Amino acid sequence: MCWCRSCWRRRARSRPGTTGPSPASCGAPAWPDPPVPGRLPGGGPGGRTSPWFDGRVDGRVDEKLLVERVTEAVTRVAAREILPRWRQLASHEVTEKTGPHDLVTVADQEAERHLTAELTELLPGSVVVGEEAVHEDPARYAALGREAPVWIVDPVDGTRPFVRGEAGFCTLVALAHRGELLGSWTHAPATGQFAHAWRGGGAWLDGERLTAGSPEPGAPLRVAHSHPDYTTPDQKRALAALWTDGVAPRPCGAAGLEYLAIARGALDALAFTWELAWDHAAGLLLVEEAGGAQATRDGTAFRLAGGNAMPFTAARDRPTADRLLALFRAGRGEDRARPEGPVVG
């Protein structure tokens, strides 16, 4: 079995977990899957050369074990650094970053610090793009466009609800390489929910497979949109197209929980006007692996490194995504026809 990216991805999507000799999709000679006993990193049980390293990083990764270890790390850090501070924050533990709606707490900072240490230890050679670290040093964001595998971390997505003592917050982690999302973890500490996804391996919530399905025929589309507190006048005008027959818009809560709602079929679509990767990376893969679709206003897939045409959407299925894109373009006086570049999903 060849372990180039093309062959590995085709194999992962067709027969995840298969062992034994397999023909190489790219025409390379076939050979058996290598049994590599040991630990992660350095090779988990049944581990294999990590497909996104393309031979340039010395290490082996068992992706199933990696999913489990990241799940454990996120759960552990949330239990230690986030939950004990929920509804227990002192005034000096909450500060503003760019304004009264952009808050950071000691829970955000400590959770990100611990996650950064644990995730980079799990995958040597990887780097972290975390919300709080990028706030301190914006140059860190450029790692999304570089060669190293990158963990994308939002330690507390929904800091305002967290500060208010509400349950609508979550911890988001995603793994990407060269702009492609590979893994996704969404944990809601207050409710105990945990969702994860792996490229080609489906989306899961508390051990149950997630299927986004399709909206109910004839019912208004349930659409969550960027919260007015975080939108500019131009963005508000772009979203005004949602106020039409057949659409039931509402302001969004924590982005990670809205993506989870789509993957569960509890929400039909979202319309967002900002592109910070830590808010969207985990959710986009979760929705795609649940059978949903995503696209930016010009019909192309969301790019982690930025430069996307706003607004963008994620939806339960492709027709719903197409419908939202048509509304976005009509609202801007653009051609309603689909541009080149298919919706992802």
UniProtKB/TrEMBL annotation:
**What reactions does this protein catalyze?**
a myo-inositol phosphate + H2O = myo-inositol + phosphate
Segments of this protein annotated with the region Disordered? 12-55
Q: What is this protein called?
A: inositol-phosphate phosphatase
Its taxonomic placement starts with: Bacteria, Bacillati, Actinomycetota, Actinomycetes, Kitasatosporales
Give the required cofactors: Mg(2+)
EC annotation from Swiss-Prot or TrEMBL:
3.1.3.25
> Sorted alphabetically, which InterPro entries does this protein's record hold?
Inositol_monoP_metal-BS, Inositol_monophosphatase-like, Inositol_monophosphatase_CS
What keywords are assigned to this protein?
Hydrolase, Magnesium, Metal-binding
Q: Which residues hold Mg(2+)?
A: 131, 154, 157, 279
Which GO molecular function annotations are given, in alphabetical order?
inositol monophosphate 1-phosphatase activity; metal ion binding
Q: Which domain of life is it from?
A: Bacteria
UniProt KW Hydrolase keyword:
yes
Q: What is an annotated GO biological process for this record, any one?
A: inositol metabolic process
What SUPFAM superfamilies does this protein map onto? Carbohydrate phosphatase
The chain's coiled-coil residues are none
